[in-house]
Amino acid sequence: MAYISLREVCKVYPNGYCALKNINLDIEAGQFIAVLGPSGAGKSTLLRAMNALDPATQGEITIDGVTLNKKNYRKIRAHVGMVFQQFNLVDRLNVMTNVLVGRLAEHSWLSSLFYLFPKMDYQIAEAALREVDLLDKAWSRADKLSGGQQQRVGIARALAQQPKLILADEPIASLDPKASEEVLKLLRKICSEKGITIIINLHQVEYAKQYADRIIALNAGWLVFDGSPEQLTAAKQAEIYGTTYEETSHEPELVLAHT
Amino acid sequence: MNPSWYWPTPNGKPPLTAVLSVVLPIAVLVLTASTVDMSTNKVFYALPRMLDFTQHLWVMPDWHYLPQLGKKMLETVEMTLLATALAVMISMPLGILAAKNASPNPWIFRMTRDLLSFIRALPELVWALVFVSALGLGPLPGIMALALVTVGFMGKFIAESIEVVDFKAIEGLESTGCTKFQSILYAMLPQAVPDFIGSLLYILDHNLRAASILGLVGAGGIGYDMVMSMRLFNYERIGMIALSIYALVTLLDRLSDVFRQKAIGGILNVH
């Protein structure tokens, strides 16, 4: 059985919007998988369904042999790292604490209450920070760092969870091209060296082709492409993004009643 | 002629809310002025008497009163600090329970909110009356009254500053599989610290002034002396008391400015 499997997964938001439509997907361990698709296609929803930040409303998601249900959300999340577009760090805490947060799931409420962490956790956090090359910033406040650095702290937090899977939800959408490349290279390296499965949402087809082992594309909630980077031809790309071009082409005029 | 100035709305007219926020207060003022007996004449004719009172304040202070004044002012400050410290400790957990995003369930949220507003419903002076009749005269009932009302306010302020915390950090924590309690501790509270400090400093300022009138009902502090010298037209003392309260409030204000800058700048950090 595949490492991750999605069976007939649907997601309908409370307002009736259907973001995922009957998704069937099998993902092997240790792969670097890029998810493409226009804005609003359901890429984020797909990732957020996998760690139940936005649970699927129908279907079955199994990760490493465990099927997601209401009772095991936290247990599953403990070993699934997540990297966000806006980094989602605690700005006022220092970098080290932000990384140690990745260890919290293992601790009781009492030790958390006093902000105390065992030595073991510091070693794990230190290793994670070394991995993302930010050990020298360990005691800086998170919001004092640049965007690229903050994203690397986000990755270190995910690494501190000692995950088998990292979900990266448009991790480079808020970064400049140089920082974007750094973050992608870093994630690729983590995948190749540690064998951690990485599923990453991207807007740039070129990056997806360059870094991914496998590319998945969504459009309007449907799975519209699933294959190797080589199989993603120009014609396929037009198909994936095509419909939205037409939708956005008619610009509304600015109406002024002032004249 | 066509006017050439417009408001930045689709139809060029001012938005309704903006118009209402100007018109309503004026309307309320016009409608209520007669009921509360607000007349400019009355104020105008009272001016000479006010001036008269102010003139009487320009007398030689009663220097023999100085040690007593110092003692009472110190008592007022002690009451303020003790009551505020006590209230902060109690209102922290209550504030968390009264924050919509941190409360364990909607019922507890609602009940804590209602409890806090019940406490706030009566002013310090009324609570002080209650405690004075139960415990007798002295600063203790004053401290208790002050602490109680402060819990009511501080609890609400804490809840509100937790509620406006950026959701992203909380989500970041939740994605690691930690518990709600842990996400309150590591995402909500640190992000709410600047707001806490702001409310705390405001409350301290407010409590200092509240503590200085609690003596009115015999609940300790400088208030008793102030009221007595007012009643006895003891101008030698009134001026001294007013000045020392003013000096203390100003000093606190300066200190809180410095403190606020440091706290928000991040010197008061975890680690």
Tell me about this structure.
The complex is a heterodimer of chains A (259) and B (271). Chain A has nine helices and ten strands. Chain A has helices at 43-50, 73-77, 95-100, 109-113, 119-131, 147-160, 177-194, 205-211, 234-249; strands spanning 4-12, 18-27, 32-36, 58-63, 66-67, 80-83, 165-168, 197-201, 214-219, 222-227. In chain A, the strands form two sheets. Chain A has a six-stranded mixed sheet, sandwiched between helices. Chain A has a four-stranded antiparallel sheet with strand order 2-1-4-5, covered by helices on one side. The longest helix of chain A has 18 residues, at 177-194. Chain A is globular, with a radius of gyration of 20 Å. Mean pLDDT of chain A is 92; it is low at 244-249. Chain B has one domain (64-265): MetI-like fold (Orthogonal Bundle), CATH 1.10.3720. In chain B, helix 3 packs parallel to helix 6, helix 3 runs antiparallel to helix 8 (180-211) and helix 5 packs across helix 6 (139-163). Chain A binds chain B through residues 51, 53, 73-82, 84, 86-94, 96-97, 101-102, 104-105, 107, 109, 112-113, 115, 139, 141, 154, 157, 161, 255-258, and chain B through 6, 10-12, 166, 168-169, 171-179, 181-182, 185-187, 190-191, 193-194, 266, 269-271.
